[in-house]
Design a protein that fits this description.
15 strands, elongated, Arc Repressor Mutant, subunit A, 275 residues, disordered N terminus, alpha/beta
Length: 275
C-alpha cells in the first residue's frame, strides 16, 4: 500500500480526457487536505472546488474504496484516524483555529460570575479558558495543566483553580482513578467538554478509555453540560463513548457544520448554538 499522503493512479483511475485529469487533481488535493487536517466536510470541498455536492461525494466514494481516506457522514477523515488513535495536544492546537476561537467566545458568554465550572482537557476548551479570564469570582475545576496555567499568574485573586491529578494522556488530559475520585465529591454549575468524535448514533467518544471514564465523572458532577466542538469532529467515532445525547444540554459549534448534522443535533433535544 502506498503512503496515504500520495494519490496512487493505479488505485484511483480517473475517466479519460481533460475532465478526468481535473478529477484526478481534485482528488489528489482532497487526500492531501484530509491528511493535513485530519478531516474535512463535503460543504467545504464544494465551496473550494466550485463543483456539485454529488461530484464531491463521488470523489469521496472513489477515495474511500481505494483506502486513501475514510468517508463519513458529511465528509471524510484521514485513514490515520482509527478508533484508538489519539493526536497530541500540540498537533491539534493549530487545526481549525478560527473555528475554535469563535466557539470559545460564544461558549464563554454562558458563564456568570460566582460560578463553579468544570473544563475538560482539549484545544477548544483551552481557547475557552482564555476567554474566561474576564469573568469575576470564578471557581474552575480542570484536568488539564495547560488550562490551569491560563488562570495563574495574571494577578487576579478572585478565582480558585482546582487541578485534579491523574495519568497524563497524549492529549494532555489528567485521567484515571485519582482524577475520578477527585470529581466524585464535587458539584459544578456547568461543565465544558470537547470530544475526539461526535456522532448521531454513538454520541461523544474518545480513543482513551481512562479519559472516557474521567469525562463520565465530570458529567455526573455537573448540573449543565456544554459540548464545545468544531464541525470536523462530526462523524468521527473513537474507541469509547463517554456521553450520550441525553447527557448534553448545549452544543456549541461553528458555521461549518453541515445542515444534516445541525438537524440531527436539534432532534436530540439539545440546544444548538452556532458560533
Amino acid at each position: 500500500m502506498n503512503d496515504a499522503g500520495s494519490l496512487d493512479s493505479s488505485r484511483v483511475e480517473p475517466p479519460r480526457g481533460r475532465g478526468g485529469q481535473l478529477a484526478a487533481q481534485r482528488q489528489a488535493t482532497i487526500v492531501a487536505e484530509v491528511n493535513s487536517r485530519g478531516a474535512i466536510t463535503v460543504a467545504e470541498l464544494v465551496d473550494r472546488f466550485g463543483v456539485s455536492d454529488m461530484t464531491i461525494r463521488r470523489d469521496l466514494d472513489a477515495l474511500d474504496s481505494s483506502g486513501l481516506l475514510h468517508k463519513v457522514h458529511g465528509g471524510a477523515t484521514s485513514v490515520g484516524l482509527r478508533s484508538a488513535h489519539e493526536p497530541g495536544f500540540d498537533a491539534k492546537l493549530t487545526q481549525e483555529s478560527a473555528a475554535k476561537q469563535a466557539i470559545a467566545a460564544e461558549a464563554a458568554r454562558r458563564v456568570q460570575p460566582d460560578s463553579a465550572i468544570g473544563i475538560g482537557a482539549g484545544t477548544t476548551t483551552y481557547a475557552l479558558a482564555r476567554q474566561l479570564l474576564r469573568v469575576e469570582n470564578l471557581t474552575v475545576v480542570t484536568n488539564s495543566a495547560r488550562i490551569a496555567d491560563v488562570f495563574h499568574g495574571n494577578g487576579r485573586s478572585d478565582r480558585t483553580v482546582v487541578l485534579i491529578g491523574g495519568i497524563r494522556t497524549p492529549s494532555d488530559a489528567l485521567v484515571g482513578p485519582i482524577a475520578t475520585a477527585a470529581l466524585q465529591s464535587l458539584h459544578l454549575d456547568m461543565l465544558f467538554l470537547g470530544a475526539h468524535g461526535v456522532d448521531a448514533e454513538h454520541g461523544l467518544s474518545t480513543p482513551n478509555l481512562m479519559e472516557a471514564e474521567t469525562n463520565r465523572s465530570f458529567i455526573a458532577a455537573s448540573r449543565e453540560v456544554v459540548l464545545v466542538a468544531d464541525h470536523t469532529k462530526w462523524g468521527t467515532v473513537g474507541l469509547s463513548t463517554f456521553a450520550t445525547w441525553n447527557d448534553l444540554d448545549v452544543v456549541v459549534t461553528d458555521a461549518g457544520l453541515p445542515n444534516p448534522a445541525r438537524k440531527a443535533t436539534r432532534d436530540t433535544g439539545c440546544t444548538l448554538v452556532i458560533a
